Amino acid sequence: MDVDAGHGAALGRALPATPSQVGSASPLSLTQRLRSFLSFQGNDDDPVSELARTHRSIHPSADVALLRRSYAIAESMHRGQFRKSGDPYITHPLAVAQICAELGMDTTTLVASLLHDTVEDTSYTLEALEGDFGAEVTHLVDGVTKFDKAFYGKAAEGETIRKMIVAAGKDVRVLVIKLADRLHNMRTLGARSPASRARIANATLDVLVPLCDRLGIQALKRDLDDVVLYHLEPDSFARIEEHVKNRPGWNEYLTDVSAKARAALRRSRVDAEVTARPRHYYSIWKDTVAGGHAVPLDLPRIAVVVDGPETDCYAALGAIHGRWRPVAGRFKDFIASPKNNLYRSLHTTVVGPEGRLVEVLIRTQTMHRYSEYGVATSYRYPKVSDEPPGSDQLTWLKRVLDWQQDTTDAAQFLDSLRCDLAEAQITVFAHGNAYELPSGSTPVDLAYELGTQKGDQCIAATINGRLAPLSSPLRDGDVVEIFSENDGQVENEPSSSRGPRKEWLGFVKSSQAQMQINRFFDERNEPGISINDKVRLGRATIGLTLRKHDRGLASEVPLRRLAEDMGYPDLETLLVAVCERTVEPDAVVEQLIAMVDHPD
């Protein structure tokens, strides 16, 4: 069963704000909403007016003057640049900021959204950006700024994603801006060739859609899902759109089910709001294909949002099951076992009126907010105090940050990230803590999740109290205990004599385990070096070379100016060239000294 919340604003400009707004009226067709969005160019007299209005509707005390100032700089820097559609380039950052505003993001995020392409595509520098808007905005913009393909070649994509993930580890708003950026690019793919559309849509499906899901922003993920389907499966999209537009008696049936559910809840003295929650197009398509159905599979669905503590969710479940017979095997409790993207809810399927299956989602108002907006919730609702367990940490992001440090090859990192994101997740318990792992993981995967040494020296495991082979697939909810050599389980054998077994690579699922096992067997080889490492080494080399001339740098501004004069897209690319000896550090330092001493 899906965890999405309904049809939302797929390819449109608005996002659902409250449960009562969803399913309250017949939605426009997706094609109509796409045309509506693409025809929108804003008010020529005041292009920031709609952005400001949207932002103030959620954050009444927001500093609109700051938005106008950032827009003015972005418009000035992008002036004369055009998109492939022929539209002025500024329409793109304005649209990205609008998407972030509809999500309820803060002013800082909107400012960074307006400026997110200036450093990459114009002469505006990070130093100028920091001077104008501060370090926080600069970090967000730098986090979504891509490495130059002309200089980094095939490694550019992987290193750009790695850079973005590392930046998101410090501030998750980097990923929110990137997702909004991609959503608008996907909405405007029509100006590109069919091959480009397919390539970009597939890349979105492989990495950014799963990233959006891990962030828990279902309001944004629904839009990405649907626009990907629009470009990759146009025939299926058209068929589902026709189905959605011509469902006889659909609204009447959902109205009847909702009314009867409300009556059952009142009898059980549960205060709750009940609304229709129609699926979005991609969700219908996915279930239709998975089940091999000849016609779109689109079960009616309602949401029950209780006004009370989470225990009322279980009372509501009892009321619904008392009214209609539940379908065996179709109940899931994401309240007792929350997903790692902040999603919490009860899912059940019942045999509703006329013998039709009806899906029911049950959650509190706070759970509903987090199910819609995930990590964006704390920005949209800054006064929310009852945050869900674990809302201050995204375990998957921490895991990626851990294992990205152990791989120096950009392509390997990107492949590992794709695999990690593509896998469904399970929750297992060890040593009193819950751990999220890819579906099909083994005790070895868990051992590496507990630590590199624990993984390397793993020798045995129990699953639910029984000794099990290390290759045993774990299931959701399993309780696992890992035994390693340094636990004292093996005597008279020095710990240095043991390590991971190569055959483990045949059954481990997690990127962390795969990388650590490969690291163990590759450690005799000269370690690779990432672009970030090369940047640091290049900077250190310049510093040491300057010392030979009894000189130093008070700031990097002259060095950035020199990088531009030498034809490099940014300072980091120059520093990589210094590290790789593409350009000699002595030559760079001589030019730097000459530029500083003789600025004319």
Automatic annotation (TrEMBL):
Domain TGS: 422-484
Signal peptide: none
Ranges for domain HD: 89-186
Region spans: Disordered: 1-26
Stored SMART domains: HDc (SM00471), RelA_SpoT (SM00954)
Pfam families linked: HD_4, RelA_SpoT, TGS
PANTHER family (UniProt xref): GTP PYROPHOSPHOKINASE, GUANOSINE-3',5'-BIS DIPHOSPHATE 3'-PYROPHOSPHOHYDROLASE
Family membership: Belongs to the RelA/SpoT family.
Record's protein name: GTP pyrophosphokinase
Organism: Actinoplanes palleronii
